[in-house]
Every structure is written in structure tokens, then in C-alpha cells.
């Protein structure tokens, strides 16, 4: 028999933990479900310097502090991989790989994951020079040379951002022209701290065991191989929203991102989405926390409305 809650939060990253905090503090019964350790991508971040209240804090430390707050008012942490969510009107059924949970409200906070190159050294040097977020990690590379891999909007925006911090940026792109918007291209081409390597693929990240020292590059037209010295590798070849379990709900756009309004409501009443899984521009810890606070409060209002409706119907 499925265990019942007022709210089930799917995902225990910063957004999910904040939603659980707000909902449980409003005296709702809450379960946070996650297939991994709470904190999400924060656990892969060596130091966070852009979260208010901390000049610098280790990612796992911030994750632990957020988790301690999230369960302070009785929210439960449930380990499991969510396979589907069924909308049964006033009740939602959340199926995991080992259990079933019922809830009046479901808050989706599953986030997104960066597309990986899948090359040697990429995983080994994650957090040691390999990054997928210039806003998060750019400051660690002041006065150094870095590489950006990609040619779309994100890659070129981040290259321009990095150029304001580091000594030099080399953009490596597999084609002979960029895919980014023209205004972004023009900005990058005019910046004398940015240069480009065309028709090339990064095939390996090299390092000394502690940090990145270079990348191996192959020209896909001539097969010529070279090594480019660098202190950092910023990879922007796309993001993948983690929304496969919710395909049946028809709440995503054509690229898989969940569409919401500013109250975090999806097209299905009682189902909310927050953080990096949403269709939005800025994906940061701060924005996920803001989304989570809104969704947690909206969950309370939704449950209260259901309760009032039930009382009214019972009195008839």
C-alpha cells in the first residue's frame, strides 16, 4: 500500500530541499525522493563563492547545511529513483524503483545534467579544471588561460564572460562557424582575449593528477593532432533536462524542459516544477532556492484549498 503525504518533492538539490523546508514548516507532511545523496550538483563543486551569506563554502558543506534545514520541520528523505508520476486528480501517485507514494502535491526538482564529451580525463578532472559553469567556477581561473568547448549561445556567452576574468580564452568548435546568435558572435570576435580553433574536436583532457594542464585536439578535416596548454576546460555542448519520468504528464516543451508560470505551476493542477528542470534562463543555486520557496508556499495554498473544498462538500 502506498504511503501518503501532503507533498512529495522529487529531487533533493537546493530547490527541492528549500521546497521541502517551506512545505514542512507549513505543517504539511513531506517526502523528498532522490536517487542519490542530497545536494545534487553542489556535491561536485569544490567551492561556492556566489551564494549569499558565505564568502566561500565547499559545495558538500552547503548541501549538508541545506539538508539539515530541510528536515528540521519533519520532512522525510526517501532514497529511490522515480520512474513515473500519475495524475489521479486530487491524488498523485509517485512510483519509484522500490516503492509507491501518494501525495496531494508533487514538486519536480530533478534538475538537468550537462552533456558530456565522453572523452578520457573529463571525469577524472571534474572539479580540478573541467567545468560546465563559468559563472560558478570562472573566478578560480583569474589570470590563467582556459578553453571553451562548443559553438552555441551558451558557449559563446560563457567565453565572453570568462574573458572578463581570465587572461585568455580559446574556443574550440567542431565546425567552421558558430551556431550562436550573431550579436553574441560579434561580441566574441571583437574581444581580443578570445580566439578560435575551428573544425576541431577535443579528444582528451590531460593533467598532472591534481589539475588540468592541457587538452588534446584533433582537426576533423586533416586529422592533425595537437596539444593546447590550458588551466581550465569549460564544456558547453548542451544540457539535458531530467524529465523522462514525466513524459506522460505532457508538461514539457519540445526540448524536454518543464513549462511553468511564475508560481511554479505546470499545466497539471497540483504538480509544480522548480530549479534547473524548468524552462528558464539562469540556472544557479540562488534561483533554484527562490523557485523552491515559491513552490513550497504554493503547495500549502493548494492543500488548504483542497481541504476547504472537502469541508464544503461534506457540509452539503
UniProtKB/TrEMBL annotation:
<feature type="domain" description="FAD/NAD(P)-binding">
    <location>
        <begin position="5"/>
        <end position="292"/>
    </location>
</feature>
<dbReference type="InterPro" id="IPR005982">
    <property type="entry name" value="Thioredox_Rdtase"/>
</dbReference>
<dbReference type="Pfam" id="PF07992">
    <property type="entry name" value="Pyr_redox_2"/>
</dbReference>
<keyword id="KW-0521">NADP</keyword>
<protein>
    <recommendedName>
        <fullName>Thioredoxin reductase</fullName>
        <ecNumber>1.8.1.9</ecNumber>
    </recommendedName>
</protein>
<comment type="subunit">
    <text>Homodimer.</text>
</comment>
<dbReference type="InterPro" id="IPR023753">
    <property type="entry name" value="FAD/NAD-binding_dom"/>
</dbReference>
<dbReference type="InterPro" id="IPR036188">
    <property type="entry name" value="FAD/NAD-bd_sf"/>
</dbReference>
<comment type="similarity">
    <text>Belongs to the class-II pyridine nucleotide-disulfide oxidoreductase family.</text>
</comment>
<dbReference type="InterPro" id="IPR050097">
    <property type="entry name" value="Ferredoxin-NADP_redctase_2"/>
</dbReference>
<keyword id="KW-0285">Flavoprotein</keyword>
<keyword id="KW-1015">Disulfide bond</keyword>
<keyword id="KW-0560">Oxidoreductase</keyword>
<keyword id="KW-0676">Redox-active center</keyword>
<keyword id="KW-0274">FAD</keyword>
<dbReference type="InterPro" id="IPR008255">
    <property type="entry name" value="Pyr_nucl-diS_OxRdtase_2_AS"/>
</dbReference>
<dbReference type="GO" id="GO:0004791">
    <property type="term" value="F:thioredoxin-disulfide reductase (NADPH) activity"/>
</dbReference>
Amino acid at each position: 500500500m502506498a504511503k501518503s503525504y501532503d507533498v512529495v518533492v522529487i529531487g533533493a538539490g537546493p530547490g527541492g530541499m528549500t521546497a521541502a523546508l517551506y512545505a514542512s514548516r507549513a505543517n504539511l507532511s513531506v517526502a523528498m525522493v532522490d536517487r542519490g545523496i542530497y545536494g545534487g550538483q553542489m556535491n561536485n563543486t569544490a567551492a561556492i563563492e556566489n551564494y549569499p551569506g558565505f564568502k566561500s563554502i565547499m559545495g558538500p558543506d552547503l548541501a549538508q547545511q541545506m539538508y539539515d534545514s530541510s528536515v528540521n520541520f519533519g520532512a522525510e528523505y526517501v532514497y529511490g529513483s522515480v520512474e513515473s508520476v500519475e495524475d489521479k486528480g486530487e491524488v498523485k501517485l509517485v512510483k519509484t524503483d522500490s516503492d509507491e507514494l501518494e501525495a496531494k502535491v508533487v514538486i519536480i526538482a530533478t534538475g538537468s545534467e550537462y552533456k558530456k564529451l565522453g572523452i578520457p580525463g573529463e571525469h577524472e578532472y571534474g572539479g580540478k579544471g573541467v567545468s560546465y559553469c563559468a559563472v560558478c567556477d570562472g573566478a578560480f581561473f583569474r589570470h590563467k588561460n582556459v578553453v571553451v568547448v562548443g559553438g552555441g549561445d551558451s558557449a559563446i556567452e560563457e567565453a565572453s564572460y570568462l574573458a572578463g576574468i581570465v587572461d585568455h580564452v580559446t574556443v574550440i568548435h567542431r565546425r567552421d562557424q558558430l551556431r550562436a546568435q550573431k550579436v553574441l558572435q560579434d561580441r566574441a570576435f571583437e574581444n581580443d582575449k578570445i580566439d578560435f580553433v575551428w573544425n576541431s574536436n577535443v579528444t582528451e583532457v590531460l593533467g598532472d593528477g591534481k589539475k588540468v594542464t592541457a587538452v588534446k585536439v584533433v582537426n576533423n578535416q586533416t586529422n592533425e593532432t595537437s596539444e593546447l596548454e590550458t588551466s581550465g576546460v569549460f564544456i558547453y555542448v548542451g544540457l539535458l533536462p531530467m524529465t523522462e519520468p514525466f513524459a506522460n504528464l505532457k508538461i514539457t516543451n519540445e526540448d524536454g524542459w518543464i513549462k511553468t508560470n511564475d508560481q511554479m505551476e505546470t499545466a497539471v493542477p497540483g504538480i509544480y516544477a522548480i530549479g534547473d528542470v524548468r524552462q528558464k534562463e539562469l540556472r544557479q543555486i540562488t534561483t533554484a532556492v527562490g523557485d523552491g520557496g515559491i513552490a513550497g508556499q504554493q503547495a500549502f495554498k493548494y492543500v488548504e484549498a483542497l481541504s476547504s473544498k472537502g469541508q464544503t462538500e461534506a457540509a452539503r
